[in-house]
Amino acid sequence: MVLHTETGSSWSVNIVANTGGYKLCGGWSAFVIDNGINKGDICEFKLMSRLEMWVQVTPDPKVASRTSRNGPPSCLPRNAEVKLRTVKPELEHVIQNALKAADASSIGPSFLTKMQRYNVEYVRILNIPMHFVRENSLSYCTDEKMVLRTETGSSWSVNVVANMGGYKMCGGWSAFVSDNGIKKGDVCEFKLMSRLKMRVEVTPNSKSAGEESRKGS
């Protein structure tokens, strides 16, 4: 889970099941320390997508006044964690559906690309269609990082560079191809979630899939 604040900074934390609900840990301690969060402060968590939240911290006025007199408070232990919510098992599917809906609502336009040899072999680059760039008013600086996310929840960082009046993905695209077993003829749908984030759905080429099944038998 990625936590964002109004400063523009972000922190990555682990989210794990916890007695019918979920909790944030493994990274939460750093978030607390970096943002100077104390006992009594109120944190509002606003869901941006399934794995992103905007956090607004309202300091406890009593703690704030004590801090100004006595200096900064002691740090929390490294194993600090926070419980998001405790829910009954029968309500868990409701929360999951809400998370999926929030994630889906953040997805914008998309484009399809049938993988060619240069996409998945040898050079291994992916051109972003110029019409898609124009229609969505996209603009990137040299070697900006694009995050590609799949339905498994995993993500990869790739470079976006200028290419003959448009843009292409490289530097990280090769790892994305290898890790997801993408082959020539497969169709990838790229769904724009934000300027530097896309969700990718891979549809295997039926011919390639058939050949693989015959080889395995």
Automatic annotation (TrEMBL):
Residues 1-61, 111-206 form the TF-B3 domain. It comes from the Eukaryota. CDD domains: B3_DNA. Coiled coil: none annotated. InterPro entries: B3_DNA-bd, DNA-bd_pseudobarrel_sf, REM16-like. One of its GO terms (molecular function) is DNA binding. It is found in: Nucleus. GO terms for cellular component: nucleus. Keywords: DNA-binding, Nucleus, Transcription, Transcription regulation. Its main location: nucleus. PANTHER family: B3 DOMAIN-CONTAINING PROTEIN OS01G0723500 (PTHR31391:SF106), B3 DOMAIN-CONTAINING PROTEIN OS11G0197600-RELATED (PTHR31391). This is TF-B3 domain-containing protein.
